[in-house]
Amino acid sequence: MMNDEFNSELILAAEDFPDDEFKENHIFSSYEEKMIRKLIAHGPVLLRGGRGSGKSALLKEAFFRTQNEVYSKNILGIYISLRYLPLLRSKGKEYEEHFCKILSETILREIDSEFNTFLDISDLQAGLYELSIRKQKRIILFFDDAAHIGRETSLKEFFDIFRMLSSNTVSCKAAIYPGVTEFGMRFDLLNDTNVIDITRNEEYIYFTEFFEELIEKRYSNSIAQKKLTVKKSEFAKFMGRAVAGNVRAFIFAMNYLGENTNGTITLPDIEKVLKHLASEYYWPLLEELEPKLGRYEPLVEPSREMAEILYSIVAESIDKSGYGPSCLIHRDNIARLKKLTEILEYAGFIVKRESSRAMKSGGRGARYTLNLCNLLEIIPHGRLSSDLFKRWLTHEKEYTQITKKSKLDDVELPELDESKELGILSTDIKILEKSNAYPYGLTDHKISLLKSAGYDAVKDVFNASDNDILNIDGISHYWLGRIKSVIGQAIWM
Predict the structure, then answer these.
(1) Which residue of 215, 277, 297, 316 is surrounded by the most CB atoms within 10 Å?
(2) Of 199, 155, 173, 152, nearest to 51 (Cα)?
(3) Among 340, 342, 330, which residue's Cα sits nearest to residue 366?
């Protein structure tokens, strides 16, 4: 979790922090400590969670700890961010060569000057084994930004490599998003890795404790000191539940409350922040996601339509039947709208809680919980009453049933262009301005400097070297780092 109160301009992805600033700005709860220990232990691990759930922070923290004396005697940790454009554009042998080159050069530059640059996975495998023997250490490879929604071709290649590199001497760890299913024919999720699901479930006993601890540690001089008109534990659980357990959205919420309340936080204050997140965080996130999806870019609008239908149906059930904020969606609907559900889960609109559950109307469905922010937006009267607050804190006994024949039938899927590249690459760099989508974006002045130097599209800046950017008058090393962070946020998920 980040440790920088109310600085909304520094709500960065963990991988964008310089090493020294990462350590200054992150603290970890007892719940997260357990996951960090698993990431350092033997064996391959996939860390699965949505955007902003803390995957990169856990990977980086685990990597940093392998450098501590207690671990470094026996472990050689290597952190690799796979934010590398050619990996998104290649497949097969070409992908393998790019991947091997990135990993080899990282080891050569940061770990061992005697390591060779390999372009073949078998040669790299042998090189890692030899490195482990020479150093007399177990190697842990931390792969960040490895698997993204909508990038199936490269996913298959990556998981083949992940499986091949995993051995008694090399432990592979990687962060992936929910819905990543294209593991390839040779990768067996049950036997080739352990999966840690980072998604925080409100039904688990640790849920309230985690968000209470987050408030106490990160907001000890602000939110934790304010008077609450509800119990502290109820406040922590409700706010965690409101964002479906997502840490980054929770931080946005706490920052907003810290900046827009005085000494007391009331139910109207909580209602206000939920509606703020719906309009200023969740919906803009779909806009940010759209140009990053390549051939799936046309699916963002149907995803928005699907979200509106789901929220409308659940809101009606809450009003008429008193049901909670979860729903069962018939598996036939899920099968037809599979990629849409992945997009919505990535963006935090829905989170899967169960893969299969019997439905009253017959058949089986998956159970999804909805964030309370977008739900409060459309429930009748749109008020967070004391009764609704208490009801949304309790465990649901009944779920809204979305049957095989439902309004979801109205959602039409467009034809996809298999050859379409990421739209963000050819987008004008004006998109990098500070906005809801890019809260730490660039100023008008810096964008003008880049344009004057001939950098018109996002890909122009991405392909430029550090020296090219630093040669522009008015661009310091600080702004170089800022530009690279925003470019990374623009292209990757």
Answers:
(1) 277
(2) 199
(3) 330
Q: How far from the centroid of its chain's Cα atoms is residue 430's Cα?
A: 24
For 218-240, how does the pLDDT look when each residue is reduced to its tens digit (9 = 90+)?
Answer: 888 889 899 999 999 999 999 99
Right CATH number for 423-491 from 1.20.58.2140, 3.40.50.720, 1.10.150.20, 3.40.50.920? 1.10.150.20
Q: What is the DSSP letter of 279?
A: I
**pTM for this entry:** 0.84
Write out pLDDT tens, residues 353-362. Answer: 999 999 998 9
The rounded distance, in Å, linking the Cα atoms of 176 and 312 is 30
**Quick count: other Cβ atoms within 10 Å of Cβ 395?**
7
β-partners of residue 76 are 139
Label residue 412 exposed, middle or buried (CB < 10 Å: 0-12, 13-18, 19+): exposed
CATH class entry, domain 206-278: mainly alpha
- Report the first-to-last Cα separation within the chain, whole angstroms: 19
Token pair for residue 271?
């209602």
Residues 6+ apart with CB under 8 A from 94: none
Q: Which sign, positive or negative, has the C-alpha torsion 261, 264, 266, 270?
A: positive
